[in-house]
Write a structure and sequence with these properties.
Length: about 325
């Protein structure tokens, strides 16, 4: 699929626009008829590996229907006196897009969605790990990430590059709840290790799963049982598009990034995500999810693909 017939949308996926308006405007691909099993918005999404997904609520599920046949659309002649469309002001993600007079807004993307699409494409830093840089502020994300005072953290839980000669192939995520560490296996006998917080007694989980979807600054939908257990939480949730929850942002407990873990076609309800409480890393205090310092969650997120294997040790 050539670059001119692709556009980025939401969580870093490429969306295949199936609506006839895309054809009329000379933007995006048009798939042949007969596409079935589409998601809530009637569109297909494609990750960087070429796999197709459909959207259900706030998640992206693997598409199991007949793969679409996509053909390029002839480019229409540019409209006279058409000015450029500018990206949103990422210093203020709530601000409307800045654009030249007389031009339409960017199609299909709100300022927040555009900022998320940019954030999920953040390239990882493959240079030597410099803690002052690795845990410094990130002001240009969807929401500004504050610097983390790594000097107060046990060094065992800070990001490290290590040698690896274990049985798992590159791309595998290994979580060791006892050691409160997460390891991403890389090529050439190397790995990256991060400190994590894990579930307290009675809330832990072990097994093998896959990363089903990835979200930047995701909405959080706590289970009804959790809301019932916490009157404070009940006062903080709002009615969102998929139920009662907390919108993505600086008060959301999933933090800057989340990776959703599934087993087959079933959601485990466990996540690898950032946190509002970075000094809980190295402890067993969560309701079961695997939490990371926001800077580490962003770094891991940029290195992991949808479909990656996750092994949580017993």
């Amino acid at each position: 699929m050539s670059a001119p017939i692709r556009r980025l949308f939401l969580a870093g996926f490429t969306v295949l626009a199936l609506a006839s308006t895309a054809h009329a405007q000379g933007r995006g691909p048009v798939a042949e008829s007969g596409i079935d099993g589409l998601g809530d918005d009637g569109q297909l999404y494609q990750d960087q590996n070429g796999a197709f997904y459909v959207r259900r609520g706030d998640r992206y599920l693997p598409y199991t229907g007949r793969p679409p046949v996509v053909r390029p659309v002839p480019q229409a002649a540019p409209a006279p006196q058409a000015g450029p469309v500018y990206a949103p002001d990422f210093d203020d993600p709530t601000a409307p897009p800045r654009r030249a007079a007389g031009t339409p807004p960017a199609e299909g993307l709100s300022p927040i969605e555009a900022a998320k699409a940019k954030a999920v494409l953040r390239a990882p830093d493959d240079g030597p790990i410099d803690y002052a840089k690795a845990y410094g502020p990130i002001p240009d994300d969807v929401f500004p990430v504050q610097a983390f005072n790594y000097k107060k953290m046990n060094p065992a839980y800070l990001r490290q590059e290590i040698a690896y000669n274990g049985p798992y192939e590159p791309g595998t995520i290994i979580v060791d709840p006892r050691a409160h560490q997460l390891t991403l296996v890389e090529q050439g006998g190397r790995a990256r290790r991060y400190g994590v917080g894990v579930g307290k007694q009675g809330f832990s989980w072990s097994g093998t799963a896959t990363v089903n979807s990835k979200q930047a600054w995701p909405d959080w939908y706590p289970p009804k049982e959790m809301i019932a257990r916490s009157p404070k939480l009940a006062s903080e949730v709002d009615k969102l598009q998929s139920g009662l929850g907390v919108a993505g942002g600086l008060r959301n407990p999933l933090g800057a990034r989340a990776m959703y873990l599934w087993q087959g076609n079933k959601d485990t309800l466990f996540r690898i995500h950032g946190t509002l409480e970075p000094f809980s890393i190295g402890k067993s205090v969560s309701s079961g999810c695997i939490r990371m310092i926001n800077q580490d969650a962003i770094d891991l997120f940029s290195r992991v693909n949808v479909g990656s294997k996750v092994v949580v040790l017993n």
